[in-house]
Amino acid sequence: MSTASVPLPHWITYGLIPVLNLIVAFLISGFVVWLIGESPLGALSLLIEGALGSGEGIGFTLYYATSFIFTGLSVAVAIHAGLFNIGSEGQAYLGGLGCALAALALDRFVPWYVTMPVAVVGAGLFGAAWASIPAFLQAKRGSHIVITTIMFNYIGAALMVYLLVHVLIVPGKMAPETRTFLEGGQLPKLGWVMNLFGAKLGAAPFNVSFLIALVAAYFVWLLIWRTKLGFEMRTLGVSPTAASYAGIPYARTVMIAMLLSGALAGMMALNPVMGSSARLQVEFVGGAGFVGIAVSLMGRNHPVGIIFSAILFGILYQGGDWVSFEMPNITREMILVIQGLVILFAGALEYMFRPALVRIYQQFKVK
Amino acid sequence: MDYYDILINVLSSTIRLSIPLIFTALAGLFSERAGVFDIGLEGKMLGAAFAAACVAYITDSAWLGLVAGILCSVALSLVHGFASITNRGNQIISGVAINFFIAGITIVLGQAWFGQGGRTPQLSPASRFSPIALPGADVMREVPIIGPLYSNVISGNNILTYLAFLAVPLSWWILFRTRFGLRLRAVGENPGAVDTAGISVSWLRYRAVMCAGILCGFSGTYLAIAQSAAFIKDMSAGKGYIALAALVFAKWKPVPVMFACLLFGFLDALANFMQGKQVPLIGAVPVQIFQALPYILTCILLAGFIGVATPPKAGGVPYTKER
């Protein structure tokens, strides 16, 4: 019997294997740090200190994590239906447009809690709309979703730059950005949550959208494991042929999965646009769409796993800033190195450790 | 400036901008024809550019730079091969991982070694591939029509440019006229049949990704030490993805690949030229339209509205030998 099909208990598949992947990624990153003449352990302790050592650090960590939960969920929903959506970056970018339009239209008239639902819907709709074309091309015309979503990232970037430079820009200003939203278009900070634990939020932009992200994670869990649609998506993801024999409509399921994926990616914009900078800027997504790939793979495409791995990447981002400040030799881009390694080991090489683990596990079980 | 001068100008920058695309798209051609999708072209190109610039700076030799670029790129190909051929991992995820890793590591190492914000120091002329004047370029310059075309577009490029145009027929010959090429294409269409014939699917695919690595090495080297005189962070700027688009656009065939790359290079050159200029009747065309055009065209093609692009059948699927 091949080792690939031996069932392993959940704690190994969802706990031990991701942790092993992470440890290998960290060991190689540590080697890189050592290579450039710095102390890996020193860098690690700085990283943890920067991300978790103060209320403000934790606030920033959770702020980053909020974006990554949304994009991680976005990637995961698509993966469950067997679709690898590399377009979360572009969908989040367009989501920012929907969110900003809602805020620009309403911020003068109503308080934030009225604007927020409209912005959530706006961001979701724009994100879904941007995902709908690659989704349609995949469902009906058989073009490869990976290629089309990559193309749409670039088309979306060009479109948004055009809009920000020529249409939405504040007349007379040089910076390609919209006007600053008034209070009715800004999400309140979650300072009180930090106060509960006796910590001060400081300047960190940790805001209400974190709670929306948690709610979204709950709904994704409900959808994937507790509804007929989720079952159909998972069937399609495991075997398109089996799904078609079972009478699951391919085109419809692909469309719905991608629209949901795009909507989740779009909602990520709430966090930086309305929660932090209070205006729409170029490059506000900042790669969070791509981080979502690593977050989802690391979290085994499960909402709970995604929340944990999003927080982990939040720690990497915030701690990484701190490290690059204290050790100028280690630049912020070290995060990309770790991210690449995590994607490699958790995603592409996910079966590398499995045969060995199966052997060890079976030995223990016999006893 | 009269119209002919403008045309010559745009054409010569078309050539310059197409070369990295041609090398990279041919790289993708070898890999994908053998059934291994390669999203990591971007990363390999960037890695090769960094390695080439570093080695060229240290050794003062453009050729050693090229060797380093190729070695780096082939090493990354082997990682991709290890993940997607030996371990049967997801080819796309592996490619994405390589892109991230390289985007980060080039800047981290560049900053640590040279302390110039992730770029390498300016290269001396000896450590670069400099333009070559073809015989008679100066004499021809005065001849109307053909003269400027010969001396400014055809002549005056560096050696890698000519190698790129040489690589196109060579790739065609390897893929369609040699036994290796036949087997390589077969392994992308029906690996089971190749396996039945007693030929190793893995070893064929490894050789295909190594060919891709070599070609990406050329394109990265071109970026860093022929077109520019240093490595600049993120200097591949999405060219790997454009090359992928060109590959789809050319329906996985070598000669059309060259023309697709020239087309995308031309759009890029036109965008640079049009910046801030007025078009009669239309007014200023936003530069973003030209930037987005290759991607839009590729999507339209993929949708089957201008012919059908059928990828190799076994593309993206790891081969599992029957047990």
TrEMBL record, chain A:
Cellular localisation: Cell membrane
An annotated Gene Ontology molecular function: transmembrane transporter activity
Keyword match DNA-binding: no
Bilayer topology term: Multi-pass membrane protein
CDD domains: TM_PBP1_transp_TpRbsC_like
Keywords: Cell membrane, Membrane, Transmembrane, Transmembrane helix
Domain of life: Bacteria
TM annotation in the entry: 12-36, 62-83, 90-106, 112-133, 145-169, 204-224, 254-274, 280-297, 304-323, 335-353
Record InterPro entries: ABC_transp_permease (IPR001851)
Protein name (database record): ABC transporter permease
One GO CC annotation: plasma membrane
UniProtKB/TrEMBL annotation, chain B:
Membrane topology note: Multi-pass membrane protein
GO molecular function: transmembrane transporter activity
Location of the protein in the cell: Cell membrane
InterPro entries on file: ABC_transp_permease
Transmembrane segments: 6-29, 64-85, 92-114, 159-176, 208-232, 252-271, 292-310
Entry keyword set: Cell membrane, Membrane, Transmembrane, Transmembrane helix
Any matching Pfam family: BPD_transp_2
Gene Ontology terms: cellular component: plasma membrane
Protein name: ABC transporter permease
Organism field: Rhizobium sullae
